[in-house]
Amino acid sequence: MRRQRRTKDEWIATFAAQQASDLNMTEYCAKHDILLKTFSARKCSMNKRTARPTGKLIKIVKPKSQSVSTTPSLTVVYHDVTLNVSQTVEAKWLADVMKALAL
Question: pTM score, two decimals?
Answer without folding.
Answer: 0.46
